[in-house]
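Design review, sub-item: ligand-bound model
Attendees: FS, YL, KQ
YL presented the inputs for the 2-acetamido-2-deoxy-beta-D-glucopyranose complex:
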Amino acid sequence: MGSGQFSFLFFLCFCQLSFSSSIPHLCRKDQSYALLEFKRTLIVDPSLVTSSSYSYTSSWNMSRDCCSWDGVVCNEMTGHVIELDLSCSGLVGKIDSNSSLFQLSHLQKLDLSSNNFSNSNISPEFGRFSSLTYLDLSDSYFSGQIPSEISHLSKLQSLYFSGEMLKFGPHDFEMLLQNLTQLSELHLTSINISSTIPPNFSSHLTTLRLGNTGLHGLIPESIFHLPNLETLVLQNNDQLSGYFPKTKWNSSASLIELDLSGVNFSCNLPESLGYLTSLHSLSLKNCSLRGPIPQSLSNLTHILDLDLSDNSLNGTIPSGMFSLPSLSRLVLSNNHFSGQFEDFNSNSLIWIDLSNNQLQGHLPKSIQNHVNLTGLILSSNNFSGRVDVSFFADLKQLCYLDLSYNRISLTNENKHKVTLPGSLMSLQLAACEVKELEFLRSEMLLWHLDLSNNKIEGRIPDWAWSNWMYSLKRLNLSHNMLASVDSIPLQSANAIDLRSNFLQGSLPIPPISTRFFLISHNNLSGEIPSSICNLTSLVMLDLAGNNLKGAIPQCLGNISALQVLDMHYNSLSGTLPTTYRIGSALKSFNFHGNKLEGVIPQSLIYCKQLEVLDLGDNHLNDTFPVWLGTLPKLKVLSLRSNKLHGPIRTLMTENMFPQLRILDLSSNAFTKSLPTSLFQHLKAMRTVDQTMNAPTDEGDQYYQDSVALVTKGLELEVERILFLYTTVDLSNNKFEGHIPSIMGDLIALRVLNISHNGLQGHIPPSLGSLSLVESLDLSFNQLSGEIPEQLASITSLAVLNLSHNHLEGCIPNGPQFTTFENNSYEGNDGLRGYPFPQGCGSSRMPETENITHMLDEVSKSTFLSEFWNGILMGYGSGLIIGFSIAYFMLSSRNSNWLSRIAEELEYRIVMRRQKKKQGHHRR
Ligand SMILES: *[C@@H]1O[C@H](CO)[C@@H](O)[C@H](O)[C@H]1NC(C)=O
Ligand SMILES: *[C@@H]1O[C@H](CO)[C@@H](O)[C@H](O)[C@H]1NC(C)=O
Ligand SMILES: *[C@@H]1O[C@H](CO)[C@@H](O)[C@H](O)[C@H]1NC(C)=O
Ligand SMILES: *[C@@H]1O[C@H](CO)[C@@H](O)[C@H](O)[C@H]1NC(C)=O
Ligand SMILES: *[C@@H]1O[C@H](CO)[C@@H](O)[C@H](O)[C@H]1NC(C)=O
Ligand SMILES: *[C@@H]1O[C@H](CO)[C@@H](O)[C@H](O)[C@H]1NC(C)=O
Ligand SMILES: *[C@@H]1O[C@H](CO)[C@@H](O)[C@H](O)[C@H]1NC(C)=O
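KQ shared the predicted structure:
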């Protein structure tokens, strides 16, 4: 419709109205024109209009006075439109600077929220609504910079913007707060503000929602003292820090909602929180808080929601917390609380999450009184005792139950009669001594079931499969004693974990929807059917540690989502899949310990995301795949124990193997000289990453979460643990010539093994620059000359093997060298000095006390001794110890890394170790 036609219609209508209407006429011609014109520039998308709302503009037509149109309010005296509410109207389109909207210059209230103006910037013309007190443009997909003209709206009391596409220009946020002196409600959730918070605010402020806005710096304490403040939300601004007021916050104790989650406070919770007696909701998740919960928190008698999770709070939970009369949601997870879980005085709780603390004792019976409880999450504490299934019988609303990793045994005294409530959707009972599944007979709604680390035997009963066929998305039955799974008849499973059972028979194929399928460490046999390639959504496929035979289905290379393909330790034969294509998502490719033949497929070069490539212990017959050097993220390359041969040639390109930290080419038939040109690259080995500490017992910072594998907590929690233990192992080949002195540049190396080759000449003094090296093995070569003094300065050296060469002269003197014994040097031509009886000038056997002292330093100085302990625990071996330096794929929750290593040791580099420990004990 052209605008000429429009005006004509309008004119007709206007005349009609002015003669026929008995009610006083309000609508001004210019205003209704502007409204209709505005309507004309937009379309209505019915799918955006929720069933509860409808599009206001649909009622706009000339047959009625525009002041009676839906969403429109006029000034009764002047007929000017003063309020326009078009929220949730399904409007789609663009509002540019010449929009007729801006002709409604008397607007006091404008609400355009929850529409779709995704092509629009916020026009500076909005700044001309000088009477505006209320402006809501939230959830409407506006984008770009918020015009500074908004600060002209000096009467504004309520302002709502939201969305990641919007941002403030420099200083605009500060000016806004300075100029809008009447402001009482300010909602800017998820806008990119990226500035500090200025200290001055309108004293009228009641609501301040600035979550997820990139604010940084210190929160001005004046915010906490705003006299009328009811809602303060600054959550999710991790660059922001602050201090709590030590005294009363504001005189009226007006705060109702306080959410500072993610803001860095790094302090104890202050007693002064007890003044906030009106609080309904307090959220201080992940605020780096420590120390105990102050007693004063029991003053917060109106509190409904309390979230103090993800901090370092400790001590016991004060008993006052268990008597808060209205508390419905208590979240204290991921802290260090100890002591008991007391009886609650109220019955009002709906959600309890105390997971990941050190709480102990029995579950209090009073939990049963919270009949509206929907979530009870107590995992990873020290709770103990037997808990019978009947304990939960009255909790008819229970959806989410997690008792995993305590010392709880779940019993079922009244088998066949009592089951868990049928309302459960997520049930996690890992390590709860579960033996059978009868107590799950009522469960028809489960979408997440974790019964890992239990004692379930035999097979999964048919009733279970049929109960869960349509609902179950995540199933974890790993670490049980299941004997067979013939099929997995689930319709929409996403993650299935059956690792470490006693499963026999052929590989069951999960439903097509499966993204994570883990069935390693079982007894599966037969071939891998090519129908596995029908699982086109697969992200992770772990079939390691079975007896699978035959060829690898070539079509596996076609699954474009696949990130982790792990089939190590099987008996697979034939060749590797060659069908990789550009865009492959593959990150980890592990076929270690099979019987694969042929060459390393060149199509792997398309897997630009590849971080781990382990083809060790196979029968591959190829030359060195130098083209792998172009993979930008490759961290681990193991080709050990194959039939690889020929000289190691390198490409002329820049920056080969930039991220490589583990290179294992041992036990092949490589020839000619050590690859000097390769050592010129290897950037990651030439720089010491200070942030990369050796693993501690805590281990967490050392675990690399494979972020891509875990989305929003609903996916299987697969953590990838990559032991970035920088290593070069070229042993057991046919290398000859000299050790290039450039090897001394690989200063990040912790393990260097070039033993069992035909190397000649002197040991280059440059190896003394390897200041982090803990194991150096040059044995079984033809090396001659003296041991360079420089090696004696390597204080981290715990293992040295120079045996079976032609070395002669004095063994240098150094703190570490006093710990090495004969077998480090035996089979040489003429070495003298400690530990040999033939003296060597000034060098002498050091004092016993000093040795002991130094040994203690050794054990302290590196993590290696601790590591050995772990390995010893697992293998109880003596001289030659399997040293795992590589990586582990495992789903680990809360278990200490040493026992995990012992348990899941998958890849090891065997090397000779000094009898350091034994020597230590002998003294
Ligand atoms: C903010 O207020 C000051 C002083 O009232 C005024 O000079 C300035 O123009 C205002 N800025 C905006 C963008 O409104
Ligand atoms: C807690 O409440 C009591 C009485 O209601 C009051 O005397 C006390 O000052 C409050 N404590 C704090 C820290 O607010
Ligand atoms: C709580 O942690 C602090 C260190 O942050 C420590 O000094 C204190 O002893 C701990 N208290 C308890 C009860 O564990
Ligand atoms: C449980 O919820 C119902 C319905 O909302 C309510 O009437 C009842 O009081 C609640 N029970 C308790 C113990 O809070
Ligand atoms: C794989 O999928 C195709 C088509 O989706 C189907 O025809 C075929 O039967 C499937 N193969 C197996 C073994 O399930
Ligand atoms: C490797 O393959 C070549 C040619 O295909 C063959 O001549 C050679 O014997 C093989 N080497 C080994 C060790 O099997
Ligand atoms: C260690 O040796 C030094 C001389 O090398 C000597 O001064 C010292 O007393 C010895 N003993 C101890 C326990 O340090």
